Amino acid sequence: MAGGKGTRLNLKIEKPLLEINGTTIIDDMIKNLLNSDIENIYIAVSPNTPKTKKHILENYSKYITDSKNVNNVKIHIIETSGKDYVNDLGECISYFKSPFLTLSGDLVNVKSKTINIIIRYYSNICKKNSDIEALCVVSRIEDYPATPTIDFEGYVPLGINIVSPNENYQKEELFVLKEPILNINTMEDLNIVIENDIYTS
Protein backbone atom coordinates (compact mmCIF):
# COMPACT_ATOMS: atom_id res chain seq x y z
CA MET A 1 0.00 0.00 0.00
CA ALA A 2 1.97 2.98 -1.30
CA GLY A 3 -0.61 5.64 -2.03
CA GLY A 4 -0.87 7.67 1.18
CA LYS A 5 -0.22 11.39 1.48
CA GLY A 6 2.20 11.11 4.40
CA THR A 7 1.09 14.49 5.76
CA ARG A 8 2.16 13.78 9.37
CA LEU A 9 5.78 13.42 8.32
CA ASN A 10 5.71 16.92 6.82
CA LEU A 11 8.40 16.31 4.20
CA LYS A 12 8.49 17.31 0.54
CA ILE A 13 9.04 13.73 -0.55
CA GLU A 14 6.64 10.84 -1.04
CA LYS A 15 7.01 8.57 1.97
CA PRO A 16 7.81 5.35 0.03
CA LEU A 17 10.76 7.22 -1.52
CA LEU A 18 12.16 8.36 1.82
CA GLU A 19 15.79 7.27 2.06
CA ILE A 20 17.24 5.77 5.23
CA ASN A 21 20.92 4.79 5.16
CA GLY A 22 20.91 5.28 1.39
CA THR A 23 17.96 2.98 0.64
CA THR A 24 14.38 4.05 0.01
CA ILE A 25 11.60 2.44 2.05
CA ILE A 26 9.94 1.05 -1.09
CA ASP A 27 13.20 -0.45 -2.42
CA ASP A 28 13.95 -2.14 0.88
CA MET A 29 10.45 -3.58 1.03
CA ILE A 30 10.51 -4.82 -2.58
CA LYS A 31 13.94 -6.40 -2.04
CA ASN A 32 12.66 -8.38 0.93
CA LEU A 33 9.46 -9.38 -0.86
CA LEU A 34 11.48 -10.62 -3.84
CA ASN A 35 13.56 -12.74 -1.44
CA SER A 36 10.51 -14.17 0.30
CA ASP A 37 8.00 -16.88 -0.61
CA ILE A 38 5.64 -14.27 -2.11
CA GLU A 39 4.83 -15.15 -5.73
CA ASN A 40 3.39 -11.84 -6.92
CA ILE A 41 3.75 -8.29 -5.65
CA TYR A 42 0.94 -5.77 -6.14
CA ILE A 43 1.90 -2.17 -5.40
CA ALA A 44 -1.03 0.17 -4.84
CA VAL A 45 -0.14 3.72 -5.84
CA SER A 46 -2.39 6.75 -6.14
CA PRO A 47 -2.43 10.36 -7.38
CA ASN A 48 -0.63 11.14 -4.10
CA THR A 49 2.43 9.10 -5.14
CA PRO A 50 3.20 9.64 -8.85
CA LYS A 51 6.97 9.68 -8.25
CA THR A 52 6.72 6.34 -6.45
CA LYS A 53 4.96 4.85 -9.47
CA LYS A 54 7.63 6.27 -11.81
CA HIS A 55 10.39 4.91 -9.55
CA ILE A 56 8.90 1.40 -9.67
CA LEU A 57 8.44 1.45 -13.45
CA GLU A 58 12.01 2.67 -14.00
CA ASN A 59 13.76 0.37 -11.51
CA TYR A 60 11.76 -2.86 -11.67
CA SER A 61 10.82 -3.09 -15.34
CA LYS A 62 12.21 -6.63 -15.69
CA TYR A 63 9.75 -7.88 -13.07
CA ILE A 64 6.87 -5.96 -14.61
CA THR A 65 7.39 -6.73 -18.30
CA ASP A 66 9.25 -10.06 -18.42
CA SER A 67 6.59 -12.74 -18.87
CA LYS A 68 8.96 -15.28 -20.44
CA ASN A 69 10.64 -16.25 -17.17
CA VAL A 70 7.89 -18.03 -15.22
CA ASN A 71 10.15 -18.17 -12.16
CA ASN A 72 10.32 -14.40 -11.98
CA VAL A 73 8.31 -12.73 -9.28
CA LYS A 74 5.99 -10.37 -11.11
CA ILE A 75 5.28 -6.85 -9.89
CA HIS A 76 1.86 -5.41 -10.67
CA ILE A 77 0.84 -1.79 -10.17
CA ILE A 78 -2.67 -1.03 -8.93
CA GLU A 79 -4.02 2.50 -9.35
CA THR A 80 -6.18 3.58 -6.40
CA SER A 81 -7.93 6.86 -5.65
CA GLY A 82 -5.70 7.72 -2.69
CA LYS A 83 -8.68 8.72 -0.56
CA ASP A 84 -7.46 6.84 2.53
CA TYR A 85 -5.96 3.49 3.49
CA VAL A 86 -9.23 1.63 4.04
CA ASN A 87 -10.76 2.91 0.82
CA ASP A 88 -7.62 2.10 -1.21
CA LEU A 89 -7.50 -1.40 0.26
CA GLY A 90 -11.15 -1.88 -0.73
CA GLU A 91 -10.26 -0.89 -4.29
CA CYS A 92 -7.53 -3.57 -4.33
CA ILE A 93 -9.73 -6.47 -3.23
CA SER A 94 -11.09 -7.22 -6.71
CA TYR A 95 -7.55 -8.14 -7.88
CA PHE A 96 -7.47 -11.19 -5.60
CA LYS A 97 -9.28 -14.51 -5.44
CA SER A 98 -7.56 -15.87 -2.34
CA PRO A 99 -6.18 -14.37 0.91
CA PHE A 100 -3.37 -11.86 0.38
CA LEU A 101 -0.72 -10.19 2.53
CA THR A 102 -0.85 -6.41 2.87
CA LEU A 103 2.03 -4.16 3.92
CA SER A 104 1.81 -0.45 4.62
CA GLY A 105 4.18 1.49 2.40
CA ASP A 106 5.84 3.23 5.35
CA LEU A 107 7.17 0.16 7.19
CA VAL A 108 10.85 -0.35 7.93
CA ASN A 109 12.68 -3.49 8.95
CA VAL A 110 10.32 -6.00 7.35
CA LYS A 111 12.67 -8.87 6.55
CA SER A 112 11.97 -11.65 4.06
CA LYS A 113 12.25 -14.29 6.79
CA THR A 114 9.59 -12.43 8.81
CA ILE A 115 7.28 -12.37 5.79
CA ASN A 116 7.72 -16.13 5.39
CA ILE A 117 7.03 -16.75 9.09
CA ILE A 118 3.78 -14.75 8.88
CA ILE A 119 2.62 -16.64 5.78
CA ARG A 120 3.40 -20.04 7.31
CA TYR A 121 1.72 -19.12 10.59
CA TYR A 122 -1.44 -18.10 8.75
CA SER A 123 -1.41 -21.28 6.68
CA ASN A 124 -1.04 -23.42 9.81
CA ILE A 125 -3.84 -21.75 11.79
CA CYS A 126 -6.19 -22.00 8.80
CA LYS A 127 -5.57 -25.76 8.69
CA LYS A 128 -6.50 -25.98 12.36
CA ASN A 129 -9.44 -23.57 12.23
CA SER A 130 -11.19 -23.05 8.92
CA ASP A 131 -13.20 -20.13 10.37
CA ILE A 132 -10.10 -17.92 10.48
CA GLU A 133 -10.01 -15.65 7.43
CA ALA A 134 -7.75 -12.76 8.42
CA LEU A 135 -4.53 -12.14 10.32
CA CYS A 136 -3.40 -8.94 12.02
CA VAL A 137 0.30 -8.67 12.86
CA VAL A 138 0.94 -6.75 16.07
CA SER A 139 3.64 -5.84 18.57
CA ARG A 140 3.18 -5.75 22.32
CA ILE A 141 3.03 -2.11 23.29
CA GLU A 142 5.97 -2.52 25.69
CA ASP A 143 8.09 -3.91 22.82
CA TYR A 144 7.21 -1.14 20.35
CA PRO A 145 10.19 1.27 20.16
CA ALA A 146 8.20 4.40 19.23
CA THR A 147 5.05 6.18 20.37
CA PRO A 148 2.18 4.12 18.92
CA THR A 149 -0.69 5.85 17.15
CA ILE A 150 -3.01 2.98 18.10
CA ASP A 151 -3.18 1.01 21.36
CA PHE A 152 -5.33 -2.05 20.73
CA GLU A 153 -5.72 -3.57 24.20
CA GLY A 154 -1.97 -3.55 24.81
CA TYR A 155 -1.01 -4.30 21.22
CA VAL A 156 0.16 -2.07 18.35
CA PRO A 157 -1.03 -3.03 14.84
CA LEU A 158 2.03 -2.94 12.59
CA GLY A 159 0.35 -2.40 9.23
CA ILE A 160 0.89 -6.01 8.18
CA ASN A 161 -2.23 -8.09 7.57
CA ILE A 162 -3.54 -11.07 5.69
CA VAL A 163 -6.97 -10.33 4.28
CA SER A 164 -9.54 -12.47 2.49
CA PRO A 165 -10.88 -11.04 -0.77
CA ASN A 166 -14.36 -10.27 0.49
CA GLU A 167 -15.86 -7.17 2.05
CA ASN A 168 -17.80 -8.94 4.79
CA TYR A 169 -16.80 -9.38 8.42
CA GLN A 170 -13.73 -11.60 8.71
CA LYS A 171 -12.79 -13.62 11.78
CA GLU A 172 -9.30 -12.42 12.64
CA GLU A 173 -6.34 -13.88 14.49
CA LEU A 174 -3.55 -11.82 16.08
CA PHE A 175 0.08 -12.68 15.43
CA VAL A 176 2.57 -11.09 17.84
CA LEU A 177 5.99 -10.13 16.48
CA LYS A 178 9.02 -9.20 18.59
CA GLU A 179 11.04 -7.70 15.73
CA PRO A 180 11.26 -3.86 15.88
CA ILE A 181 9.09 -3.07 12.86
CA LEU A 182 8.00 0.57 12.69
CA ASN A 183 5.61 2.72 10.71
CA ILE A 184 7.31 5.98 9.77
CA ASN A 185 4.48 8.40 10.52
CA THR A 186 6.34 11.26 12.21
CA MET A 187 9.82 12.75 12.46
CA GLU A 188 10.05 11.15 15.91
CA ASP A 189 9.58 7.73 14.30
CA LEU A 190 12.22 8.50 11.68
CA ASN A 191 14.71 9.68 14.31
CA ILE A 192 14.16 6.52 16.38
CA VAL A 193 14.89 4.36 13.33
CA ILE A 194 18.08 6.30 12.54
CA GLU A 195 19.35 6.64 16.12
CA ASN A 196 18.77 2.96 16.94
CA ASP A 197 19.88 1.69 13.53
CA ILE A 198 16.55 -0.09 13.04
CA TYR A 199 16.67 -0.93 9.38
CA THR A 200 16.94 -4.03 7.26
CA SER A 201 20.48 -4.96 6.31
From TrEMBL:
<dbReference type="Pfam" id="PF00483">
    <property type="entry name" value="NTP_transferase"/>
</dbReference>
<dbReference type="GO" id="GO:0016779">
    <property type="term" value="F:nucleotidyltransferase activity"/>
</dbReference>
<dbReference type="InterPro" id="IPR029044">
    <property type="entry name" value="Nucleotide-diphossugar_trans"/>
</dbReference>
<dbReference type="InterPro" id="IPR005245">
    <property type="entry name" value="CHP00454"/>
</dbReference>
<dbReference type="InterPro" id="IPR005835">
    <property type="entry name" value="NTP_transferase_dom"/>
</dbReference>
<feature type="domain" description="Nucleotidyl transferase">
    <location>
        <begin position="1"/>
        <end position="84"/>
    </location>
</feature>
<protein>
    <submittedName>
        <fullName>GTP:adenosylcobinamide-phosphate guanylyltransferase-like protein</fullName>
    </submittedName>
</protein>
<keyword id="KW-0548">Nucleotidyltransferase</keyword>
<keyword id="KW-0808">Transferase</keyword>
